[in-house]
Amino acid sequence: MSAAGTEPGVNLATAFLDRNVTEGRGGRTALTGPAGSCTYAELSALTNRVGNALLELGVQAHERVLLALADSAEFVATWYAVQKIGAVTAEVYTFLQPKDYTYYLDYTAATVVVVDAGTLDRMREASAASRGRARLLVVAAAGSDLREDEVSFDALVSRQPADLAAAPIAQDDIAIWKFTTGSTGRPKACVHTTRSPVFSHQAYAQGVLDILPEDVVLPVPKLFFGYARDLAALFPFGVGASGVIFADRTTPELIFELIARHRPTILVNVPTMMQAMLDHPDAAAQDLSCLRLCTSAGEALPEPLHRRWNEAFGIEVLDGIGSSEAYHIYISNRPGRVRPGSIGEVVPGYQAEVVDDAGRPLADGQIGRLWVRGESAALMYWQDAGASADTYANRLVMSGDLVERDSAGYFTYRGRSDDLLKVGGIWVAPAEIERCIAGHPDVVECAVVAAERGGLTFGQAWVVLRPASAASPEALQGFVRERLAPHKVPREVRLIAALPRTGSGKIDRSALRGLALTGNRGGREA
Prior knowledge:
Layout: H1 12-22, E1 29-33, E2 36-39, H2 40-56, E3 64-68, H3 73-84, E4 88-91, H4 98-108, E5 112-115, H5 120-129, E6 135-138, E7 150-152, H6 153-158, E8 174-179, E9 189-193, H7 195-206, E10 216-219, H8 226-233, E11 242-244, H9 252-262, E12 266-269, H10 271-279, E13 293-296, H11 303-313, E14 317-322, E15 329-332, E16 345-346, E17 351-355, E18 367-373, E19 380-381, H12 385-391, E20 392-393, E21 396-405, E22 411-416, E23 421-423, E24 426-428, H13 430-438, E25 443-453, E26 456-465, H14 473-481, E27 492-495, H15 509-517
Parallel strand pairs: 1-11, 3-4, 3-5, 5-6, 6-7, 10-11, 10-12, 12-13, 13-14, 26-27
Antiparallel strand pairs: 1-2, 8-9, 9-19, 14-15, 15-16, 17-18, 18-21, 20-21, 21-22, 23-24, 25-26
Helix pairs in contact: 1-2, 1-3, 2-3, 4-5, 10-11
């Protein structure tokens, strides 16, 4: 499918990968990890072979290719190969259930799905239940183990030529699907042209992070999360830098090990892993001096956690906010201008406004809905005209995030508009209560959701305490009562060993509401 624009566009494989070879940087490291390093020349050749393999399988321009495999050079090469032949990339989490994969197969109508040993069996089950019949291209699989309509990635790719002409791209050709997290419903595809990553690279990667050719980027999230993929295998390639990739599950021990081994300069992080790294018994012995900065996104970074990180590691954290709808990060703290507790300032090239329910701009200091305008805005949600009309308008993304802007232009995240609670007739933002509870010295993390009893809605706090903490739900309520208005004190506080999370690492509030409905108290209750 192609949008209306017919002006020449950018083939992302040419712009971000091949250019390093043609401009004499083919010998530089593009990717490094436990399996060794891969130069730009090697990655470009592998990309061309994969592209030729996809063409042999019959993939046409504008068709979707679904990636469901662990982080690897094959993952990155396949992503660029899809781009190079003019098709559309879509990635999914590698730990979903077959029913979830069936949804993605039907929704994307993908002609080819690239899988590996970790996802093959579940994708087989999903494919059997799917309305379509996508071919499975299987990485690192023996030919004798494959079924009908399954193809060995290694065998097919190895016999392909290492040369491939890039498909011509129109400026508004669809190139990338980025899925929403699905924390409040079925994931939707935010449909992007090549304009989105090119603009985001200029605005955020260069305008804020100032990625340099000498940088080495280590991502904590996996590559199926666009936040990580772009920062590890797209934005660095724009300047000839390199990314660290690894297939294993992310743990604090592994991140510390990779930092010691590869000495990255940028750590792409999320608050949950920042907390885990700080709580690790060997945290004080770690040498993170190689890092020049750390990014944080995906969920709110509590100010106490931010300050604790600064005290422990002394590495500047650039907390920010982005979305699949706007491609990547559009508000962020800047090097040398970080304000803990805020999500920073508008990224160069974007415009941001805080508005009321009618779309009217609000004065500084008032909480309202965040609207963002920029060239990286998606065209639409795939096949959802109603939601698209509610969210997109002429490069404007009308987000559901609630924020507050101060007179200096710094934004503070206040939660989601669909998470607001109406307690005693007064609207309450759960994020404000969460920030307060997170300031308690015994609290690791918390989430506040709406609960209902006897037809009345009230705030319910789910709290993870530090090991051996004796803090009671009553004590936590008293802590909030001393700091916030009475109607903001959660009526119930439930202690839980760990908060449920979505595939992207965000707190799964729907799951918490489900626990409340089933009567699972997760611990003590006030």
